[in-house]
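Review form for a predicted model. The reviewer records the input and the model, then writes brief findings.
Reviewer: anonymous (R2)
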Amino acid sequence: MFKLTKTACKMSLRRPPEVVLRCAIAKEACRRVGISPCLTSARTHVHKAAVCTELGKPLQIRTDIPTPQSLEKGQVLIAVQAVGINFADVLLCAGLYQEKPPLPFIPGSEISGEVAAVGEGVTDLAINDRVLALSRLSGFSEFCVIDSKAVWKMPETLAYPEAAALLVSYGTAFMALTRTAQVKPGETILVTAAAGALGLAAVDLGVNTFGCNVIAACGGEEKGLLVKEKGAHHVIDYTKEDMRQRVKEITEGRGANVIIDPVGGQVFMDCIRSVAFEGRIVTLGYASGDIPKVPANHLLVKSCSVMGLYWGSYSKLHPEAHAHSIASILRLSREGKVSPHVSKVFPLEQANEALRFLHSRKSTGKVCLQVGKD
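Model under review:
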């Protein structure tokens, strides 16, 4: 059940509880998306969402999605303000992701917004709290119901788009550098696709949190300037330069101690040849569309390691490690030590354009959808 506001409690003296509940939720929901509250409680309240009805086809912008009228124990109803778009969303809508939810579904997992209602047993969140959250689906929507364990209060310094850009990229980069690669201060880190959301997070953390020497590999002068602003010590433009040769020059032949690679394909093969003795390569995705085959003989000769990381799976398989990465990122954000970069914000109605923009690799940092009015 919901916790009701004082106004709703006063209403309960004159109306049946179930009517009070529906009216209270509907009024709060309507206020947050900037529409007039409905006058009749019997009417089904609806909201807007971008829905995947067919894999590989454009999302449908629908305005008839029922707004939840009740919550289960431990759930929170969030009035969504912004949603971070990840490359996984592009793959999910195309049917190319490792997880395939049944159709139709609403994509979007990285959410920021305000608490519109709380279910029974939720004691650490209240109506009007500004929050960020992780959901398997349903983010491309004006409202989303999420388990309270996956909802956290926003750092006060962040706007909604920046909050929606924080957890996935920085949580993944943090775990990759600490738990997986066990990076040490003073080591050299090579980050590929360094101007992307995950790459920039790895650069930011590597320089400003872990005190490492960071080499950022990306494509184009504009992206190179951005990673420099984030603190990268060296920049490689792999549209013009040979990454393997440049890493060799920068490290005086030693190679990079830790390599963070979300690209795969030929870039990954160049990473194998650029890693130092006893170095660690963390493979985080295959944005190139090419899943490489690891040449085991190179691992033997360099006594190096290749490790994979799927950060999302830790929420179920190792929740303590997942929670630690999130708590660490929220702490660093509140201390002003990390800051996500949002390159472009699209309105919810342009969700298809946003997905295409991300897929085109024209973006830097994070691309977000603006959903609410704030």
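Findings: Residues 177 and 183 are 6 Å apart (CA to CA).
Further findings: The chain has 13 helices and 15 strands.
Recommendation: see findings above.
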